[in-house]
Every structure is written in structure tokens, then in C-alpha cells.
Amino acid sequence: MLFHENEYEVQMFSLISLLYMDCLFG
Could you tell me the pTM of the whole model? Predict the structure, then answer.
């Protein structure tokens, strides 16, 4: 369960990072 939660957090972080990069360099 902990691994699944961590994986979810990593996916959310990746999505936010992509959106941030798009806004920053877009």
C-alpha cells in the first residue's frame, strides 16, 4: 500500500512538473 501511495505521488509530481515546464518554457 505504501508503495502504491508513493507511486501515485510520483505520478502527480511528474504531471505537475510537465505543466510547470510547459508554462515556464512555453
Answer: 0.57
